[in-house]
Each structure stands twice: as structure tokens, then as C-alpha cells.
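Students often ask why inverse folding is considered easier than folding. One informal answer: many sequences map to the same fold, so there is more than one right answer. In these notes we will look at a single instance of the problem. The structure comes first.
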């Protein structure tokens, strides 16, 4: 298996399957496609378009089959490795886990836009300003807090559905965003954030992101240099 990804410091979509596979002990070869630009003809776009027509990462290659989009990759891995129990075992919990992943997949546009993933950075002053000025971001954060609180209380933690699953991998980039921008959250949510960061798969991604030292100005609207 190959997993094609973008820069670990910035690529929130790539983080999801990488963390999931690493955490589950699914062997794969990592192929990095450095973000240079996203315009047609860029090195990144040209390289990734050879793998899938969407021209985006991540892309999973398994025995010649290309699977792209994080939800499709997660579902494929769950079917390919049923013994890994990547979704919750209970049918109702599994349905809820799919629902919250789909909600993340298609929503939270304001949070994504204003709080771009940047693991290396610490931007609490930006976070405070955005939360003050952008009501949609406040709404997005409120929904995340309410969702996580409900799931942690319902399933008893330490992860959203008890043990680490696709849902936790799916929200790992949100954990990174909340940390980077110093977003204030209730104590139980702060504790969940720390538990996610401590997971081996997440910790390994963070370590690699910090080692990149590859500043991409177009990914950092709040900074001009490191």
C-alpha cells in the first residue's frame, strides 16, 4: 500500500488516513507531494493528477487501485481490514460515527477557512481575534464542543466512541487547529485534546510536521516568515 499525502504541517486531509493507518498498525509506504501551488500545471497538481482525476491528496494506492477522499479511504480500510475494528462495533454507534464524520467532511467551512491547520505555529492572538470577529467560527467551535461533549459522556471516553476509531482520526486535524489558535474549550474537551495528541499515530504525525521546516507562504495568511 502507498499513501500519497501533502505537507504534514498543513495538510489536514492527509493527516486523517495517515494517523488512522499508523494508529491501527496498517503497513504502508508514504509518498509526499510537496505543496508548491495548487494551480493547474504546478508540480503538486501535476503529480497528484497522475494518481486521481480530482488532483487532491490524500490518495491510497492498493494493488493498482486508487482510492481518494478521506471518507472513501476510511471506508475502504474498514472493509479491507475488518479485524482492525476501525468503526465502532455497535451498529448504532457506528451509524453515529459515520454521521459525525460526514458532518465534518461537508461542514465547518468557516473554521477551516479562518483556522487553517498549521501544526508548527502558535497563534492564540489570531484565534482570539477571529473568534471575536467571526460569528460563524464561534458557531463551528460551539458545535464541535457540543458534539464531542455528548459523545464522550455517552461512551465514557477516553476517545469519542470509547476506543480510538475513524472518528478520532477524522477530528485529529480539528484538535490541531484548536491548539494552534489557542481556542478556549471546557476542561473535558481540553483533556480529550491532550489524549488525542498523545496517541502514537498523532504524536508521530506531529513530530514529522515539526521536522519539515518548509514554510509555504500561501498556507500562512497570518505570518510572513518563520
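Output (designed amino acids):
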Amino acid at each position: 500500500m502507498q499513501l500519497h499525502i501533502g505537507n504534514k504541517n498543513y495538510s489536514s486531509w492527509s493527516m486523517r488516513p495517515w494517523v488512522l493507518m499508523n494508529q491501527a498498525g496498517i503497513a504502508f509506504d508514504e509518498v509526499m507531494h510537496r505543496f508548491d501551488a495548487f494551480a493547474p500545471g504546478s508540480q503538486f497538481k501535476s503529480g497528484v493528477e497522475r494518481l486521481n482525476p480530482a488532483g487532491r491528496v490524500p490518495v491510497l494506492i492498493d494493488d493498482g487501485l486508487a482510492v481518494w477522499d478521506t471518507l472513501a479511504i476510511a471506508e475502504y480500510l474498514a472493509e479491507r481490514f475488518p479485524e482492525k475494528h476501525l468503526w465502532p462495533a455497535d451498529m448504532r454507534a457506528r451509524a453515529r460515527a459515520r454521521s459525525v464524520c460526514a458532518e465534518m467532511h461537508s461542514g465547518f467551512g468557516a473554521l477551516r477557512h479562518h483556522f487553517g491547520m498549521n501544526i508548527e505555529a502558535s497563534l492564540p492572538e489570531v484565534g482570539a481575534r477571529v473568534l471575536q470577529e467571526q460569528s460563524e467560527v464561534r458557531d463551528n467551535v460551539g458545535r464541535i464542543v457540543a458534539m464531542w461533549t455528548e459523545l464522550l459522556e455517552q461512551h465514557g471516553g477516553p476517545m469519542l466512541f470509547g476506543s480510538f476509531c475513524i472518528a478520532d482520526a477524522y477530528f485529529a486535524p480539528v484538535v490541531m487547529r484548536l491548539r494552534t489558535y489557542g481556542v478556549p474549550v471546557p476542561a473535558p474537551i481540553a483533556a480529550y485534546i491532550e489524549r488525542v495528541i498523545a496517541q502514537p499515530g498523532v504524536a508521530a504525525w506531529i513530530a514529522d510536521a515539526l521536522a519539515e521546516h518548509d514554510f509555504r507562504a500561501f498556507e500562512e495568511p497570518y505570518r510572513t516568515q518563520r
